[in-house]
Amino acid sequence: MTRPSSNRRALAFMVGAALLWPGASAQAQDAGDAVDRTAAQRRDDARSQDRIDQVDEATREALQAYRSAVWETQQLNVYADQLQELIDQQAAELESLREQIRELELTEREIMPLMLRMIDALERFVALDLPFRQEERRKRLEGLRDAMSDPSVSVADRYQKVLEAYAAESDYGRGIGHERAEIDGRVHDILRVGRVALYALSLDGSEVRRWDAASEAWVDMPGHYIPTVRQALRVSREVIAPELLLLPVSVPTADGDAGTLPALDAVEAAPEAAAGSGDDDGEETP
């Protein structure tokens, strides 16, 4: 690009030549106009180039923004696909839960009558069983009845309580147990041999009785059984090791009544199989 100072020198030269040469003035004027037009054109070119540069920069920024937008769109599409999979899985789980709720409602309608029948059967069984630990067993049955009518107790908890009651009654049939109770106005130590027999020894050790299932009453036993029952009570309290003891027991006869075996029939005395049976230890009979 020609510098302005050179243009001025050239213009001055042409003006001087015009002054020296007649008729050259018009040519000098034309040359000056051409120089001005050239300078103006170059300024226009420069401005055009600036605009081109600005448009190019804007185009590059727009392209970069477009590429970023495309990349972000791809990421969002991947994320949306993952979310859709989660939504589908959650929808399936929700439907499964709804189905389980429907089945649970059906099960509850079916299991409630079953549990009530189980409680009725257990109540009848306790009433017909040997008369031992009656207060504890009565309270357990009352607790089951209360749980059945308590809306805060879930069906699962109710069923668990019924099973626990059955397990407790089953444990009574294993081994031997003891408690202290009043018979005919006198306190006795009660010895239970599973669900086979009940024996009662007075606290002073002067009398011994057994429960007669046929008459549903306590009947006297010969005095020579006192040491044997006392020994069985010591085994029940785990004071001594289990041993074989000879005690009379009642068994069903041919006519359906309960008979009594001879005195030499043996009953093995062993403590309760289940720990924490809850029998009242009391004091050992002398």
Please sum up the structure shown.
This protein is α+β, with helices and mostly antiparallel strands and 286 residues long. It is 58% helix and 16% strand.
What keywords describe this structure?
two-stranded antiparallel sheet, 16% strand, 58% helix, 5 helices, single chain, 5-stranded antiparallel beta sheet, alpha+beta, 286 residues, 9 strands
- Mean pLDDT over the full residue set: 79
Largest pleated sheet:
5 strands, antiparallel
Oligomer: single chain
Q: What percentage of the residues does DSSP assign to strands (E)?
A: 15-25%
Q: What is the total tally of β strands?
A: 9
- Main sheet strand line-up: 1-2-3-4-5
Instruction: Indicate the structural class.
Output: alpha+beta
Number of helices: 5
Straight-line N-to-C gap:
136 Å
Characterise the protein shown here.
- There is one protein chain.
- It is built from five helices and nine strands.
- With 286 residues, it is of the alpha+beta class.
- A five-stranded antiparallel sheet has the order 1-2-3-4-5, with helices on one face. A two-stranded antiparallel sheet has the order 6-9.
- Helix 1 packs antiparallel against helix 2 and helix 3 runs antiparallel to helix 4.
- The C terminus is likely disordered.
